[in-house]
Design brief:
heterodimer, A: mainly alpha, 2 strands, disordered N terminus, B: Beta-Lactamase, 5-stranded antiparallel sheet, two-stranded antiparallel sheet, 6 helices, protein transport (chain A), Clathrin/coatomer_adapt-like_N (chain A)
Chain lengths: 740, 161
């Protein structure tokens, strides 16, 4: 085992890892780890443990936590170790602390001081260790404590320190943009750092800042283009080459920044065309990193103001990606294509075959990416093929998260591009059948609305055709087992509204089917509710049309069952159904007009139609209506001074509940030393009566209550023990005596 | 930004977990387990990328690669380039290789804190800090040297092993 420098571990640790590795079961492993935890607990808290042993114990503790066990008992030791002057121990302390704690942990406050000190250290490695910790552990509250030092370190002579200081400042601006907003010019300054590494690091915060506010950084376009040019022309030291590419990671970051800066800006874009063209021309498509740069160029080109030459080059690169045998490159090809089609839609057609090939690929990532692309490529001419493929795929996968996504995309595409009603209904049926419980409830409502409203054109025959085909398909599907609840609801609703509309099916046939659904899903109240309401509609339409209603015996028993249902909703629906059966045709027509689901209901908020009736009643000597706010008895609700005002006149009981006590701060004054009453209780009492404290208490009639109110006042101002009401007081005294 | 770096073995046992946004221990394990499940289900000779938006939120993906018995996993969002991440992983592994001369799973386990030191030189706060493995090796060696010096003032019995 190569133990390097100070990284070697003891035999004990070796044995631990070995025994965990050899553990045959999870239980055995847990036993070993728990034993280790006991050992560590004892040793860490033993004051005689030498410091240098502590270091290893902390590393072991880290290992224990990585295996999923609680190690919080040792956090404090990690914190203590950061205080050590020995670099090895200090670094171990910082490492463990950054892995154990989050930035809001209570122990952080104990480290801030050490970090402050270490940031000023002469040893740059100590400074680096502290900066690492800063990136992880400093939160919004503690930023001001270290900010001045971090800013100072931006000018440190070691480039490693400058780099990390840039990163730390970036982290601050992510955490709390306000705290460093006045320091952002430092990033611009560091862009000109003579160490390319520091410049490269500065690109990270600049990318974020530019994404947030492009306009502020437009002046940097020239600088970025120049830097990119220098990098691409190999003017950086050889040591920045990676696989013969000059500083590829810096190039990629720059390309990302240029993409943001040039988006929708013709002038800025034009400044970038030359260098982009150069890079793509010289691009090396044999190495991984070369392709990464090429891909980034395509992304950049597709976000800039379009340029024919560059688009052509991008299209060429994409076709190379798609033709490649490597799955990674195919994936990039698809990803690049879905960006490029936004500005040049025809490019998709050239690659249609290659794209379809990717759907057959065994690689799930590639498939998903391809479906994302197809979703963007969909038009009314290809919607049928694409949605069919999507549904096929949706049925085949088991990941619910993704299934939901695909289902909602199918719905969206179908709604947008459906070539025919028939197809639309069939597609929706498939989606609902296989993912009904996953799609948003809104989709079901949209479908119902769509069937009710038709496709918006004023073409009644088309609409009724749509409905007929829907009814027909539902009658076919509804017998299948295990249909999702949402789908059954749609089915019931449509059958109720339109089941008998075209005269093809008789009322008894439809009602029979509805009863079957309700019976087959007797555990699902929502479906039953939809079914019974559908029954109600069918029967009303029958009555309105003047036909005699012939209730099937199974319907009768269903209604009877629901009349006694536990669910009040179902009961109500059943009673309504029963009531409607006994009403004459004319009335039923008013209650349940045919095909009126889309009619807007106009609400007469002033209840103007009642005016005549009211007038008549008044003439007959009725009391005029008094608005609630003006009624004398009701005053008590809106105002809290009711008692004084109304107690003499109205000797009625009050039924309104008191206002709930608001959670409030404990009384202002600190409790006196003898006070043992829990503070929360005090504030509660004080709070209930608080409103009355602002009132002058003049009336004697409420004297008994006044005492209580005064209690609130007194507590509030701190001399509680002088005027306390009895119960609390006794309680207090008892406690006092106890404590004596 | 990079959301996390995970090394685990082919049994799913974590060897290094580092998230750049704090995750409680239980959550870390849940994530590692879910990632392990996803990786296991992947066929050979497919792409190295997996979309993991169901675990980490929209647009988050991971790149993974197996080296001997170890899975290396980088989790990142759409401000990073997939292929470049794959190369960054290569840098990481190359560096490990240089530091441990022919790295293997046991090296990672036994020299846990050194692996962290190396990673901290490459990625800081979720951003790529250094991409040249020789630079990283240089920095790590310097730290080792300083630590050895610090170690030499310890009582002799505690020096190394």
């Amino acid at each position: 085992m190569g133990s390097q420098g100070g990284f070697g571990q003891s035999k004990e640790f070796l044995d631990l890892i070995k025994s965990i590795g050899e553990a045959r079961s999870k239980a055995e492993e847990d036993r070993i780890v728990l034993r280790e935890i006991e050992t560590l607990k004892a040793r860490l808290s033993d004051p005689n443990t030498p410091k240098f042993k502590l270091k290893e114990y902390l590393i072991r503790l880290l290992y224990v936590e990585m295996l999923g066990h609680d190690a919080s008992f040792g956090y404090i030791h990690a914190v203590k170790m950061t205080h050590d002057d020995n670099l090895l121990l200090k670094r171990t302390g910082y490492l463990t602390v950054t892995l154990f704690l989050n930035e809001d942990h209570d122990l952080i406050i104990l480290i801030v001081n050490t970090i402050q000190k270490d940031l000023k250290s002469d040893n740059y490695l100590v400074v680096c260790a502290a900066l690492n910790a800063v990136c992880r552990l400093i939160n919004e509250e503690t930023i001001p404590a270290v900010l001045p030092q971090v800013v100072e370190l931006l000018g440190h002579q070691k480039e490693a320190v400058r780099k990390k200081a840039v990163m730390a400042l970036h982290r601050f601006s992510q955490r709390s943009p306000g705290s460093v907003s006045h320091l952002l010019s430092n990033f611009r300054k560091r862009l000109c750092d003579n160490d390319p590494g520091v410049m490269g690091a500065t690109l990270c915060p600049l990318f974020d800042l530019i994404t947030l506010d492009v306009d502020k950084y437009k002046d940097l376009v020239v600088s970025f283009v120049n830097i990119l040019k220098q990098v691409a022309e190999r003017r950086l030291p050889k040591s920045y080459d990676y696989h013969q590419m000059p500083a590829p990671f810096i190039q990629i970051k720059l390309l990302k920044i240029l993409a943001v800066l040039g988006s929708g800006d013709k002038k800025a874009s034009e400044q970038m065309y030359t260098i982009l063209g150069d890079i793509m021309r010289k691009g090396d498509s044999t190495s991984n990193i070369g392709n990464a740069i090429l891909y980034e160029c395509i992304c950049c080109v597709s976000s800039l103001h379009p340029n024919a030459k560059l688009l052509e080059a991008a299209a060429d690169a994409i076709s190379k990606f798609l033709k490649s045998d490597s799955h990674n490159l195919k994936y990039l090809g698809i990803a690049a294509l879905s960006r490029l089609i936004k500005i040049s839609p025809d490019i998709a057609e050239q690659h249609q075959l290659a794209v379809i090939d990717c759907l057959e690929d065994p690689d799930d990532t590639l498939k998903r990416k391809t479906f994302e692309l197809l979703y963007k490529m969909t038009k009314s001419s290809n919607v049928e093929v694409i949605v069919d493929r999507m549904i096929e795929y949706m049925i085949s996968i088991s990941d619910n998260h993704y299934k939901t996504e695909i289902a909602s995309r199918c719905v969206e595409l179908a709604e947008q591009f459906a070539p025919s009603n028939q197809w639309f209904i069939q597609t929706m049926n498939k989606v609902f059948e296989h993912a009904g419980d996953l799609v948003n409830a809104k989709v079901a409502h949209n479908l119902m609305r769509l069937i009710a409203e038709g496709f918006g054109e004023d073409d009644d025959t088309a609409d009724s055709q749509l409905r007929s085909s829907a009814v027909e398909s539902y009658l076919r599907i509804m017998g299948e087992p295990k249909l999702p609840s949402a789908f059954l609801q749609v089915i019931c609703w449509v059958l109720g509204e339109y089941g008998t509309a075209d005269g093809k099916y008789s009322a008894s046939y439809i009602t029979g089917k509805l009863c079957d659904v309700a019976e087959a899903h007797s555990a699902d109240d929502t479906v039953k509710a939809y079914a019974v309401t559908a029954l109600l509609k069918i029967y009303s339409f029958e009555i309105a049309a003047g036909r005699t209603v012939d209730i099937l015996s199974e319907c009768q028993s269903l209604i009877e069952e629901l009349l006694a249902s536990n669910s009040t909703d179902l009961q109500q629906r059943a009673y309504e159904l029963q009531a409607i059966l006994n009403v004459d045709a004319h009335a039923v027509e008013k209650i349940m007009p045919i095909n009126s689901t889309c009619d807007d209901i106009e609400i007469d908020k002033n209840l103007a139609f009642l005016d005549g009736y009211v007038q008549q009643s008044l003439e007959n000597g009725a009391e005029p209506y008094i608005p609630e706010s003006e009624r004398s008895g009701m005053l008590s609700i809106s105002s809290f001074m009711t008692h004084e005002d109304h107690e003499p006149s109205t000797h009625t009981l009050r039924f309104e509940a008191y206002e709930l006590p608001k959670p409030s701060l404990p009384p202002n004054a600190p409790p006196s030393s003898t006070e043992l009453v829990p503070v929360t209780e005090l504030s509660y009492v004080a709070d209930i009566f608080q409103p009355t404290t602002s009132l002058p208490s003049a009336s004697d009639s409420a004297a008994s209550e006044l005492k209580l109110r005064l209690d609130g006042v007194q507590k509030k101002w701190g001399r509680a023990h002088l005027l306390l009401p009895c119960p609390t007081h006794h309680f207090k005294q008892r406690h006092c005596e106890d404590s004596k | 930004m990079i959301r996390g770096v995970i090394i685990m073995n082919d049994q799913g046992k974590p060897r290094l977990i580092k998230f750049y946004e704090f995750q409680p221990v239980e959550k870390q394990h849940e994530l590692v387990r879910s990632i392990y499940r996803i990786l296991c289900s992947r066929a050979e000779n497919v792409s190295n990328f997996v979309k993991v938006d169901s675990l980490f939120g929209p647009d988050v993906r991971l790149v993974y690669k197996t080296f001997a018995t170890l899975y290396f996993v980088f989790v990142f969002d759409n401000s990073e380039n997939e292929l470049a991440m794959l190369d960054l992983m290569q840098v990481f592994v190359e560096t490990l290789d240089k530091c441990f001369s022919n790295v293997c799973e046991l090296d990672v386990v036994f020299n846990f804190s050194k692996v962290h030191t190396i990673l901290d030189e490459i990625i800081l706060g979720g951003q790529v800090l250094e991409t040249s493995s020789s630079e990283v090796v240089k920095a790590v060696e310097e730290i080792s040297k300083m630590e050895r010096n610090a170690n030499s003032i310890l009582p002799a019995s505690w020096q190394g092993r």
